[in-house]
Task: structure prediction
Amino acid sequence: MRREDRARNDPAQYDELADHWWRHDGEFAALHWLAASRAEHIPPAPSPDAVLVDLACGGGLMCPHVERLGYRHVGVDIGETGLRLAREHGVTPVLGSVLQVPLADGCADVVVAGEILEHVEDDVGVLAECARLLKPGGALVLDALAAGRLSVLINVHLLERLPGGPPRGLHDPALFVDRERLLAAADRLGLDLQLVGLRPSMRQAIAWKLGRRRLVRMKPIRSTAVVFAGYGRKR
Result:
């Protein structure tokens, strides 16, 4: 099937683009930028046996950062192709759904849920799994695409047509995340969560386009209306 004929948010696209996972100039380039941004908000491992659970880990792009921080890196995904790549980069792979993670309660010092909430019909269900997996005091780092017209305009109609943006059809705007609902759910689940907007550095993005940089820094901004990150802890 041609990619343009697929329904939006078809997970098979990740398998078809497997050779792009670790290319800094490929169709998943922005995922490298986001992985580096997440790492800035993960504390160093508190002990040699500390565990970081990486939900929807894909090809394991968090691996270099997690290794540097000293965690055992456990990656959960439904895609076997991505998990094979993640294993090659040092991730302990777990095949499973982010809505029913086959790991024990309280097993994680850190949970990362990057670029997954806008790919599931039950984003609050994913957040509930994050809360279940975390130890008390454990850290949560997430990022997602916000619900709203501006987000759809930029993330779908604009960025899907630009180099470094998401592949065409990768996102379904109907699944973009309601931030107020997410924050209310976090509070019910015992998570102290704060949201911050993100955007790439324009200067570095231009340098990346010209082949002068491998990574582009994601800068924090006040508005969470397009792309946002969430940083929190389990009470």
